[in-house]
Amino acid sequence: MKKEYDLSSMKSRTNPYAAKLKKSVTIRLSEEILSYFKQMADESGVPYQSLINLYLRDCVIQQRKMDISWQGK
User: Fold this and answer.
1) Residue 33 pLDDT level (bands cut at 50, 70, 90)
2) H-helix or E-strand spanning residue 15
């Protein structure tokens, strides 16, 4: 191996998979939900956005479905 390499002649290129990893979205969350995940983030040292992503990923893997039907009187 060489002691030093000349990288100045190398052409840089973008990672073709970077755009597929995560997508930026805007989502409205209640203050209660946001506070809950921020508290968990402080306790775990993981950013709250990552915790929300991990939770949603777990829902996808477990194929959890919500019952959002309205209960009539």
Assistant:
1) very high
2) none
Sequence letter at residue 60 = V
Residue 22 near residue 53, CB atoms below 8 Å: yes
| pLDDT at residue 14, rounded to an integer | 83
Contact status, residue 39 vs residue 51, Cβ threshold 8 Å: no
Q: Could you tell me the maximum CA-CA distance found in the chain, to the nearest angstrom?
A: 79
Round to whole Å and give the CA distance between 49 and 38: 9
Cα 48 to Cα 37: distance, rounded to the nearest angstrom:
5
pLDDT of residue 43: 97
